[in-house]
Task: structure prediction
Amino acid sequence: VKSAAQWRCVAGVLVLLSLGLLVAVIVRAVKKNENTQTDTDSVIAKLKCKGGDSVINTSEPENPGVFDDLTHKELKSIQEYIYGVSELKLARPKEAKINSSYLFVSDYFPPKKSEALRYLDGNGNKPAREARLIIFRGDKTPPIVEEYIVGPLPKPTYHKLLKSTARKNPVPYAHRPQGGVELGELFGHLYSVIDREVGYLLKESYGATFTHCRNKCLTSFLSSVSSAILNKDVRKMWILAKYDIEYYSIQPVDIAFLANIDGSDSSRFHIETVVYADQVYSSLQALAAAYNSTSNPINKSKVEFPKYDENLFSAMFRRGPPSSSSSSNNPQRPAKSVEPDGKRYSIKHSEITFQGWKFNFRMSTLTGPQIYDVRFGGERIAYEIGLQEIAVFYSGQSAAERAADYIDSGLLVGTHADALVPGADCPESSTFLPTTFLSDTASDPVRKSKSVCVFEMDTGIPLRRHLSYSYAEGGFYSGLSDIVLTVRTILTLVNYDYVLDFVFHQSGALEIRTISTGYIISSVYTDNKGPYGFKIHDNMIGNIHYHMFHWKADVDVLGTSNRYETLDISAEDVNNTLSSGLPHELYTQIRFNRSLKHNEQEALYKFDFNRPKYHVFHNNDKKTKHGVPRSYRIHLAGMAKQLIPENNGNEMALSWARHQLVVTKHKDDELSSSSCYALFDNRQPTVHFSNFTDDNDNIVDEDLVAWIAMGVHHIPHTEDLPITPTPGSHLAFFLLPYNYFDECPSMRSRDAIRVGLKNREKPEEGVVVNRYGNSRGVECEANLPNYDQEVKEDPTAVLQNSREGSGYS
Result:
């Protein structure tokens, strides 16, 4: 018994020991696992991608160059100077009214090209830096708009009216662009008038009003009525009512107001026509009387205010089941770009270099993104390439809908380069550049910290490649992915977003691209609107419209003495007797003829499908060793025909859209093809582009400028809800080297891959893979900033949190 008891005791001790050992093993395993995880994190931390040797300096320069934008310091000095000019009597932003004189906007005023080139090429002094100011003179009789040149910067001592043979100055007050001061007074006055007269009607019809509406409000989409439509210089605007809910441009209601907003006294602004439920009334009072009439009842609208939640069709929340590749419980992150050896481009203030490219970038407040002094391999390809204008012309059944012809420079294009979001708008590894300008509603210079992004990316398309798989054909492969540098800005012009890219290829090609996305403008569906759009939601059609873009390309091929010629491709019949053995038999093939354009009228180009051609620019004194002119070719890849007849309605403001390509002799006065007054001045445009070619200058061996128009027609469809996707909306033009280099300059790129046989006589010995010094894999983690945390700490990096400096937006 005693022995049995002893054994039971021993067994108990062993069990306890075993349990103790088991616990120790578990604890050790857990600790080991924890240590392993820590060690792994430590390893990852050590494997961050290399910093590289590039210089990234996005700060404002102390001594700005020829193409640097106005710095914060310069803008402050401009304010200090111009507010001190007693004869201008400028009201400061917080006191400005439309019946006062006030500073509307600033922009950099580039020097004359000849002076800039002399300085850049080491043959002249640095030109003085100057600013261009637009000043509204609402307290003058009559009120006008004046443009001044202020300089020299950074300490201005003079201001002078901008004088130009290509534009008016001063400009009628009725033609001024829209701004925050005017819109504040307009809405503050007219919304109150509308609600006072017909607010009960709005509430009964739509469940909302413009004022005192809490969370059930109406807002409006504005449509300017140009002087060409009115046939006089009077300022009028359609106010198209919408539900003030995400997003209002596709939340229409069927009432619109034609407002007379002429002059500089906002108390005299009034509604002179109303369209309600497809019925026209001469005033708010006439609408109210008809609505209340019992003897002659009218058609009345009855629409419920939309219920706002994440499933509302116009709201931009993710909804619907996730794609099959990832479940909602286990989402998978998308592919990311990475810079394993750091950035291969450099930025010093506004100057950017990459793989043989060198150029300066700036953002014009008035016209948008521009690049200057564009060089490849040390040679200047272009002096200036920049956006000139964006226009969208809508059509519709009603006068309010068809008047929706938007010429976006009237909204000050460059001021709408707002926040870019890493991981969506641009790769997370991008470098972001700020823009700064003066606004009519901001006391200090407005700074937008992420207006532009710069990034290198693999397009996923070979730049060049060939595979000779067969031993008899050589047995080798050589290829190079099209790895490019992109400089991008996205302009949010009210409802539409335009992605604008400058893309630099290693072949010496430069691509300028525009891509459209954003919200469409819609109207309330009725049966008679069929020709103008499809019914794409319960009570809505998306109106047909036409997007147009205009670009300036001041091309300098090996100097400023250039020629423009086309290589005209045509068919010809040639004798085929030798091949066929039949007498007099003909064979058709294609050929080309060189056609030198001697003057600006000869250079006007309208696309003709039956007459294909190349557009070539060259310096006739600079030829290859084969006697061929070293050239650059402009390739157009975004053309569409503008269908409105010349000088009809608002077409005069778009005379630049009459031709897909126009070539002119460079003139400093012909700074831009449009103006910020084009929303209203169409009867007599401040800048009339057709005048640029009416003088028919000689363009042989001259400094030439190419003006390029692109466009796309858009008939909205259900897949444009809630927002228009970008595929299918890509428009572009290219500057392509054409007999410019001895061979494709991408042959020097170490990004290439070649696979060849070790021994052609013995292919069974295998192959050699040559990456020209580049390692094969990516074994590092990208150095990415924590964007989510940045935004939490500074919400203004993505969303406005103050009304000051808001402008139109």
User: Anything to note?
Assistant: Confidence is low (pLDDT under 50) at residues 1-46. The chain is about 15% helix and 35% strand.
